[in-house]
Design a protein that fits this description.
alpha+beta; 17% strand; 309 residues; DUF559 domain-containing protein; Endonuclease, Chain A; four-stranded mixed β-sheet; 13 helices; 12 strands
Length: 309
């Protein structure tokens, strides 16, 4: 990533011929390297570039979460920023491409410097995400923060909200904190768990996240995303592991998945492998994942697992 100077004609030439890609008016990056990045890392690069470019603004929202290394529910198209001291942003027509200035107060105590970039504090950007993106997006980022920073307990986070009594997003964030857990492994796993919670299916008696299945006396184990009623395993498939690496690594990953599923099914567990797209629901209808889960709940568990269920 390079800071562009008007006098640097060589950099300008490489931008013109496509070798470099402009992330902002002042920051460029190797175009081939940028295209090779997964979407979430491209979003992080854009957030970092905006943070380097803006003179006084503070990065917030999902972009701030990315800069802190947290998972987010979606890939944002723009970077949310605030001006310090409650200053009013200029007309949207004057905003740089890919930047959205939010109207609101950013207290100096909620501004942190990260690699030379002004970034909002956790609670502050949690509130922004809860307000602009909704409860699901807020649970994802709170889950991610709690996994990386165990000191961020539910009690601690709820107590922090007392310092923000009138902020937008407060009700949504409080709900998100109450729904969060400290050991979620991915954004889509969190999303699936919240969808199950909201569906209120009558046949569900328990949902256990991040369950270990030990493999004999070797000390090795399989970890599953979550276990429903003690016998229905839900795994949210992340496609990135099947689209990166060389053919040998791909084959090894597929073999490991087959061995894992065989182990679980041989012990009587039902395994539901869910693609993130199956979590999407059309307006007024339930998602395919819930329909699959309804059918699974109609079945009886194996006898040796019935007392668990």
């Amino acid at each position: 990533m390079t800071r562009l100077k008007q006098s640097d004609h060589e950099v300008s030439r490489r931008v013109a011929d496509g070798a470099l890609r402009k992330l902002t008016a002042e920051v460029v990056m190797d175009a081939e390297l940028y295209e090779q990045l997964p979407p979430w890392d491209r979003a992080t690069a854009r957030a970092f570039a905006v943070g380097l470019t803006v003179d006084k603004a503070v990065v917030s929202g999902q972009a701030a979460a990315r800069l802190w290394g947290l998972h987010t529910l979606t890939i944002e198209d723009s970077v949310s920023c605030y001006l310090p001291d409650g200053r009013t942003p200029s007309s949207p027509r004057q905003w740089p491409p890919g930047v959205v200035y939010r109207y609101g107060h950013m207290d100096p105590k909620d501004v942190h410097e990260y690699h030379g970039i002004r970034v909002a504090s956790f609670t502050r950007f949690f509130l922004d995400i809860a307000h602009y993106e909704g409860v699901h997006a807020a649970v994802v980022v709170v889950d991610s923060a709690r996994r990386q920073f165990p000191e961020l307990t539910e009690e601690f986070l709820l107590d922090r909200l007392k310092a923000f009594p009138r902020y937008r997003g407060l009700t949504n964030l409080r709900r998100a904190i109450e729904l969060s857990i400290p050991d979620s492994d991915s954004a889509q796993e969190t999303r699936a768990r919240i969808i199950v919670h909201e569906a209120q299916l009558p046949g569900i008696t328990s949902v256990q996240p991040q369950v270990r299945f030990h493999r004999g006396t070797t000390g090795r184990f399989y970890m599953v995303d979550f276990l429903i009623n003690g016998w229905i395993i839900v795994e949210i498939d992340g496609r990135s592991k099947y689209t990166t690496g060389n053919p040998e690594e791909l084959e090894a990953a597929l073999m490991a998945e087959r061995d894992r599923e065989k182990f679980l099914t041989n012990h009587g567990y039902m395994v539901l492998r869910i693609d993130p797209k199956q979590l999407d629901a059309p307006p007024g209808a339930e998602c395919e994942f819930i329909r699959i889960l309804r059918r699974a709940l109609e079945q009886e568990p194996p006898v040796h697992l019935q007392q668990v269920a």
